[in-house]
C-alpha cells in the first residue's frame, strides 16, 4: 500500500474556517490537485459552520467554494490518528475513514485542528442531561430534538450566547445564561467592540435576540441534581450586597462549557513546541518543526475572523508565497489584540477550583475521582497511578479540567489518537513501518510534481 499513498505539496488538517482559508490560499498558489484538505466531519465547516443535515450557511459555502475552485481536494470523514515525519523529507498522515485505513503524504502541513470545550467538573456533572454547550449545539445540528426542552446555559465565554440563541431558535426554552465572568469585565470588553464594526453588529444582533433571557454574571453551577437524569441545577450567584447566594433552576438539559482550549494531539505527535497551552508559531505561522504551519484556534482562541486570516497566512506561507502572507500581518495583529482582551475578560475565577470534592469524578472514561488525582503532583504521575486521561478520549474531556484544577499539562500524545478498529490499526502500523524505509519514488501522477 505504501506506493499507492497519494502525495501532495501541502496537506491541511482541519476543515473549519482556518483550514478552508489555508487550502484556498495554498491551492491558489500551487494549482489544482496539489493541496489536500482533511477533516473528520462528513462535510467541511468545522465547529462554527457545522452543517449536520442542513444546507451550509452562505459564509461556509463561500469558503468551501473558494477552496474547491482553487483546486484543493477534499477528504472528509477521515479521522487522522497518527502523523510522522518521513526520513526522506515530508510527512505522512495516517487515519481511518469508514472503518478503513487512510493515508497521505505531503511536503508541508498546515495544522488547523481547532479547539475543544473546557469542562470543569462539579458534583452531578456526569448525570445524563448535562452536555457541553457547543456539544449540545452540535448534537442539535445533527438532528437531536430540543424543541420545548428547558436548557440552562452555563459556564463562560461568548459561545454561551451563540448557543443560547441557537437553542431558542430551535424552540427550546432557556431559563438563564449563567456566566462566571463578572459583569464589569464583560462590559469593559464590550466597550472595545466599536473598534471592530462587524463584531459589534454581530454582538448587537445576539444581544437583541437574547433580551428576554435572564443573564447572570459572576455566577456558576455548583451542583447538578436529579434521579438518574438531570432535573435541576443549583447555581451560585451574587445576591444583595454582592453576597453569594444559591438559586435552583429546574431544567431538562444543562449546556455547560468554560471556554475553549486548543486541540493539540496531532501537534504533540509531530513534536511541535507548545507554549502556555497553545501551539507556538513564528510570524508566518510556521511551528518549531520546519515545514509544519498552524492556523486557527490551535494557536489560541481567537474567533472566526482570526481563524480565517491565520488560514490565509499559513496557506500562502506553506505554498512559498511568504511576501504575500506578510501583507496580512497587520490584520492578524488587530485580531490578536481582540483575542487577548477576550481571554482577559473571561478569565476563569479561582472559586471554580473549589467546585470539585474528593468524590467528584474528573476522568469520566476511567472513572477517576478528584480525591485520587489531587495527590499526584504531575499529569504523568496521575496517568501512571490513577489512569486519569488514559481512556478512549485520551484526555480530551478531562485534560482542560486537570490543567485548571491541578496544573497538569498534557505534554504527551500517543497514536492512535482516537479509537480505531483493530484491522485499521494493523494496516496503519504496517504502512508506517514501510514508509520509514528511505523513499525510492515520491511522484504520483497528477498530484505532486
Ligand atoms: C464545540 C464548539 C462549538 C462552537 N460553536 C461556535 C458557534 O456556534 N459560534 C461561534 O461563533 N463560534 C463557535 N465556536 C468557536 C469557533 O469554532 C471558532 O471561533 C473558529 O471558527 C475556529 O475555527 P478553526 O478553523 O480554527 O477550528 P474548527 O472550526 O474547530 O475546525 C477544526 C476542524 O478540524 C477537525 N479536526 C481536528 N482534529 C482532527 C483530526 N485528528 N483528524 C481530522 N480532522 C480533525 C475538527 O473536527 C474540525 O472540523 C465553537 C467551538 C467549539 C469547540
Index terms:
single chain; 449 residues; alpha/beta; globular; disordered C terminus; binds flavin-adenine dinucleotide
Report on this structure.
The chain is built from 14 helices and 21 strands. With 449 residues, the chain is an alpha/beta fold. The strands form six sheets. Strands 1, 2, 3, 4, 5, 6 and 19 form a seven-stranded mixed beta sheet that branches. The protein has a five-stranded parallel beta sheet with strand order 8-15-9-10-11. Helix 1 packs parallel to helix 2 (58-70), helix 5 runs antiparallel to helix 10 and helix 8 (303-318) runs antiparallel to helix 10. The longest helix is centred in the C-terminal third of the chain and has 17 residues, at 329-345. The protein starts with 6 loop residues before the first strand and ends in a 14-residue tail after the last helix. The model is unreliable at 442-449 (pLDDT under 50). Bound molecules: flavin-adenine dinucleotide (FAD). Flavin-adenine dinucleotide binds next to helix 1, strand 2, strand 4, strand 7 and helix 3.
The total beta strand count reads 21
Number of helices: 14
Poorly predicted spans: 442-449
Structural class, please? alpha/beta
Straight-line N-to-C gap: 20 Å
Computed Rg: 22 Å
Helix amount, in percent?
25-40%
Q: Shape, please?
A: globular
User: What profile does the largest beta sheet have?
Assistant: 7 strands, mixed
Overall mean pLDDT: 93
Small-molecule binders here are: flavin-adenine dinucleotide
Amino acid at each position: 500500500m505504501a506506493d499507492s499513498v497519494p502525495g501532495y505539496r501541502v496537506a491541511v488538517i482541519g476543515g473549519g474556517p482556518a483550514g478552508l482559508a489555508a487550502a484556498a490560499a495554498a491551492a491558489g498558489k500551487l494549482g489544482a490537485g496539489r493541496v489536500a484538505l482533511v477533516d473528520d466531519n462528513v462535510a467541511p465547516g468545522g465547529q462554527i459552520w457545522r452543517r449536520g443535515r442542513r444546507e451550509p450557511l452562505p459564509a461556509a459555502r463561500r469558503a468551501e467554494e473558494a477552496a474547491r475552485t482553487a483546486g484543493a481536494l477534499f477528504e472528509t470523514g477521515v479521522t487522522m490518528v497518527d502523523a510522522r515525519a518521513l526520513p526522506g523529507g515530508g510527512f505522512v498522515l495516517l487515519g481511518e475513514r469508514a472503518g478503513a485505513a487512510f493515508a497521505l503524504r505531503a511536503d508541508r502541513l498546515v495544522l488547523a485542528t481547532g479547539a475543544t470545550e473546557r469542562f470543569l467538573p462539579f458534583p452531578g456533572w456526569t448525570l445524563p442531561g448535562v452536555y457541553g454547550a457547543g456539544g449540545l449545539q452540535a448534537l442539535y445540528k445533527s438532528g437531536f430534538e430540543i424543541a420545548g426542552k428547558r436548557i440552562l446555559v452555563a459556564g463562560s465565554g461568548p459561545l454561551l450566547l451563540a448557543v443560547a440563541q441557537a437553542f431558542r431558535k430551535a424552540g427550546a426554552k432557556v431559563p438563564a445564561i449563567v456566566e462566571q465572568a463578572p459583569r464589569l469585565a464583560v462590559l469593559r470588553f464590550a466597550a472595545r467592540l466599536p473598534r471592530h464594526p462587524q463584531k459589534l453588529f454581530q454582538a448587537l444582533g445576539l444581544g437583541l435576540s437574547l433580551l428576554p433571557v435572564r443573564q447572570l454574571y459572576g455566577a456558576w453551577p455548583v451542583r447538578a441534581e436529579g434521579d438518574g437524569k438531570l432535573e435541576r441545577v443549583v447555581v451560585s450567584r451574587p445576591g444583595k450586597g454582592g453576597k453569594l447566594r444559591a438559586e435552583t433552576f429546574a431544567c431538562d438539559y444543562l449546556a455547560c462549557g468554560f471556554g475553549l482550549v486548543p486541540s493539540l494531539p496531532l501537534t504533540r505527535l509531530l513534536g511541535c513546541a507548545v507554549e502556555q497551552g497553545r501551539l507556538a508559531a513564528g510570524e508566518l505561522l510556521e511551528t518549531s518543526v520546519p515545514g509544519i504551519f498552524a492556523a486557527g484556534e490551535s494557536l489560541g482562541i481567537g474567533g472566526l475572523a482570526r481563524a480565517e486570516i491565520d488560514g490565509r497566512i499559513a496557506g500562502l506561507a506553506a505554498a512559498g508565497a511568504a511576501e504575500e502572507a506578510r501583507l496580512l500581518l497587520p490584520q492578524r495583529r488587530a485580531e490578536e489584540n481582540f483575542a487577548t482582551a477576550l481571554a482577559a475578560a473571561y478569565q476563569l475565577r479561582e472559586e471554580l477550583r473549589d467546585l470539585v470534592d474528593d468524590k467528584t469524578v474528573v476522568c469520566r472514561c476511567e472513572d477517576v475521582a478528584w480525591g485520587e488525582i489531587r495527590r499526584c503532583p504531575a499529569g504523568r504521575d496521575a496517568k501512571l497511578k490513577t489512569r486519569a486521561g488514559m481512556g478512549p478520549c485520551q484526555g480530551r474531556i478531562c485534560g482542560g479540567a486537570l490543567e485548571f484544577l491541578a496544573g497538569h499539562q498534557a505534554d504527551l500524545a500517543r497514536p492512535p489518537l482516537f479509537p480505531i478498529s483493530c484491522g485499521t490499526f494493523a494496516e496503519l502500523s504496517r504502512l508506517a513501518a514501510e514508509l520509514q524505509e528511505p523513499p525510492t519514488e515520491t511522484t504520483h501522477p497528477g498530484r505532486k510534481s
